[in-house]
Each structure stands twice: as C-alpha cells, then as structure tokens.
Amino acid sequence: MKRAYKIRLYPTIKQQVFFKKTFGCVRFVQNKYLELKQDIYKGTGKQFYPKLANYVVVVVTRTQHLH
Question: Where are the domains of the chain?
Fold first, then answer.
C-alpha cells in the first residue's frame, strides 16, 4: 500500500530566493539537454544516449560561467 502526504512549506525570503535560483538552473539545464537531444536527432536521425547527459551538464555549466 502506498501513502501520500501533503505538506505546506513557508520558506523565508532567503530560502525563496534559493529555491528560485535552484529551480531556474535545473530548468535551464533540462531545456539545453532537450535542445541538444532534438538537434542530434534532426542531424543524424539517431537517438541521444542518456550516458552523455553528464557531459552535457558539464559543458553547459562551464560555458555559462564564461559569459
């Protein structure tokens, strides 16, 4: 049997800023990964393998720090 719990959080202003930054970064990396996956499929007709996901995250984060 599975159970689910609903909770409500009341973060402080500092925590709200942290959550917004964190989820913004996650969304950015996810969108870049999807964009790359689609580009590779359009160019080659082959699927993008999940093992390359770590490489994508490293490249994206490193190039973003340079700008």
Answer: 13-66
